[in-house]
């Protein structure tokens, strides 16, 4: 797997090049936005790690020009940490956005996830019955009523709706939402589902989050006779 790093800070660039190489990737590094765009278009990379504040062309400009030509996965790695910056990066077509200072372990995990996923992009807007999820702005409504969720509740709901109709085990949910191995003595998933139902399902019909006994949970629209979730 070949990765292009576009990063103008010498210390960060050297760190990324060395660390990613030690993680098994072939790495090219450039400190200039225009050079980064040229290299990305002329060489077949599996992923691009892109800063925003660059000489030559900004990361925004590189991203916009790159998306007009190809679909290589792009991860923004930048000190620009405002919500609007994240939204702009994702709206321009980036696949992920990580803020500096960062954990190298987290960076590698995100890179592996993007490489497994390839260029398949998730929808920015998700709908199920009268439930609407604005993924970029992390906003949820039912029947046009705003539903405030915590970060974990949003991540859990996003997972359930994105995989509508699939029965998701507690082990899978725990690994995807909390990045943890599931402990059978821990009821964190069940508690989170209960809290999410109280906000998403209790005030509305039809019910969308259902228990599949002995297996896990599924998010889908069911016939009225099946609407009530199992306790």
UniProtKB/TrEMBL annotation:
InterPro entries: CheY-like_superfamily, CusR-like, OmpR/PhoB-type_DNA-bd, Sig_transdc_resp-reg_receiver, WalR-like, WH-like_DNA-bd_sf
GO cellular component: cytosol; protein-DNA complex
DNA-binding region, residue range(s): 123-221
Pfam families assigned: Response_reg, Trans_reg_C
Record keywords, A-Z: Cadmium, DNA-binding, Phosphoprotein, Transcription, Transcription regulation, Two-component regulatory system
Molecular function terms, GO-annotated: phosphorelay response regulator activity; transcription cis-regulatory region binding
Protein's GO biological process: regulation of DNA-templated transcription
Source domain of life: Bacteria
Domain Response regulatory, residue spans: 2-115
The keyword Transcription regulation is annotated on this UniProt entry: yes
SMART domains from the UniProt entry: REC, Trans_reg_C
Protein name: DNA-binding response regulator
Organism: Achromobacter aloeverae
